[in-house]
């Protein structure tokens, strides 16, 4: 089953596919996994994170925090033999430069699972005891999120600032690293907004939320200035930012940016339509609305995940 099918199938079938993938991964010899298989697992974890946050699901893939599964580097497989010296050098460079970012990004996805497990779709809410438990769990998640920032890759700050140039790396590698690390960091900041909308939905924005909005805005505009299409993995940060954005011009820019990804993301139009409806309802009701509730009502069984 291809990516578009996973994204657009009916909910029961889609969740069953992810459950089957989890079972297969658990039964596999993890040390014998090939590079494409490890990359597929990383992609499935991303899909599971988006599925669980927008339309339910179990988040089984997010519970496995074995970092060896996040490794997309050919150099990390001791059973593989380099075909040529140039290939070996490229693989080592990929490992050294990209792998820390991939691990960081996959850790961010694990937070999506933790946050989702305290939402009203995955646990009881509404009583004093429920909300006390949720507040305690949310406080720990927030603490761990801040700790993760301290574990960000050493190269991330330089890449995000646009300081990687041909003096340091080949241009295509510098551009790819900059784009990837900005995307990873935007997804990190999206977790703070996601957490607030789940645990503190009735309360005003906190400093963490306003900081997250400012950073996602900055990173998104920096990527747009390159003239290239925004990366598909920016869909979630764009959407969660827009749900808290009050400036109409920024909202319009976000919607246009999301819909502009339609040629490379099969669910971009649906995501834009969903976001527009969420914003409309929030403006009318003068309060936050649950994205998943709107998604299920607006798209019935056809809308599955925002990747």
Folded structure, characterized:
- The protein has helices at residues 3-8, 11-27, 35-55, 85-116, 128-149, 156-160, 171-199, 207-224, 235-242, 248-259, 268-285, 291-299.
- The chain has 307 residues and is mostly helical.
- The chain has one domain.
- The chain is globular.
- The model is unreliable at 1-9 and 73-80 (pLDDT under 50).
Write the layout of secondary structure elements.
Elements: H1 3-8, H2 11-27, H3 35-55, H4 85-116, H5 128-149, H6 156-160, H7 171-199, H8 207-224, H9 235-242, H10 248-259, H11 268-285, H12 291-299
Helix pairs in contact: 2-3, 3-4, 4-5, 4-7, 5-7, 7-8, 7-9, 9-10, 10-11, 11-12
Task: Summarize it.
The protein is mainly α and 307 residues long. It has 12 helices and no strands. It has helices spanning 3-8, 11-27, 35-55, 85-116, 128-149, 156-160, 171-199, 207-224, 235-242, 248-259, 268-285, 291-299.
Output the keywords.
mainly alpha, Fun_TF
Which residues form runs of ≥5 with pLDDT under 50? 1-9, 73-80
- Helix and strand content put the structural class at mainly alpha
Q: What's the overall average pLDDT, rounded? A: 83
Compute the number of structural domains.
1
Number of E-type strands: 0
Strand percentage lies at under 5%
Tell me the helix content: 55-70%
Element order, helices and strands?
A: HHHHHHHHHHHH
Biggest β-sheet description: none
Per DSSP, the total helix count is 12
User: What Rg, in angstroms, do the CA atoms define?
Assistant: 19 Å
* Gross morphology: globular
How far is the first residue's CA from the last residue's CA?
16 Å
InterPro entries: Fun_TF
Pfam families: Fungal_trans_2
